[in-house]
């Protein structure tokens, strides 16, 4: 796409439109494949989870003390893992925590979620409606513009006077892509972001390049979705990476991005066992 020929006023908007196409491709890819058979003990076709109610519809009674609650996982087939998106609450919490201590991010008003089976995070109700994508775009653009304020820019993308701004930009992208993507960025991802940074820098300078690339990262599927496809595959079962486990834990426990302790555990490959996960 010939970004070099776009006007400044439409530059970031076109970038987000381009990323919208990536959204669609990611959704199609997720729908065309399957992880597991969906017949495991916690899998249901309606995506509501695996609570073992009896025929009367009442939940089972709590076990008495002294009952062995351990389970033999041998032979258990993992359920399906469809492509999931951040909920509205998770989106706002993630923005707040990404910029904690740097910016005060006000909650973004997004279209109301559609509960399915009683759950507002059920993937069956997570359709990327145009109004939702518009909300994401507006939020990302607003944060990016606040990030280049004089007092904030040097906290997010420091670059001393006289330093190579492209080198500063490269350091900024590597640091913030890892935070926003919840894992270290791949070389290809960094290459594309750096190309965008250089293009914007050449026409509008350092601050604009930071804003454009920050908006692109906050509008990306890597931030908005849980992309769990990087682990080792055995047949149609894929093992979660440490960073994917860290994200599952953090969004389960506090509905936001992994903290430094979880990221460090993932980087050190210390989230590969049940005991390690229980410790967290």
Task: Summarize the SSE layout with pairings.
Elements: H1 8-32, E1 84-85, H2 88-98, H3 130-147, H4 150-156, H5 165-181, H6 187-204, H7 206-218, H8 221-224, E2 225-226, E3 233-234, E4 237-238, H9 242-253, H10 260-267, H11 274-279
Antiparallel strand pairs: 1-2, 3-4
How would you sum up the major sheet? Answer: 2 strands, antiparallel
The stretches of 5 or more residues where confidence is low (pLDDT under 50) are 1-55
- Percent range of helical residues: 40-55%
Tell me the series of helices and strands, N- to C-terminal.
HEHHHHHHHEEEHHH
Structural class: mainly alpha
Please, how many helices?
Answer: 11
Q: Shape, please?
A: globular
Mean pLDDT: 80
Distance between the termini: 44 Å
State which percent range the strand residues make up.
Answer: under 5%
Q: For the largest sheet, list the strands in their spatial order.
A: 1-2
What radius of gyration results from the CA coordinates? 21 Å
Give the total of beta strands: 4
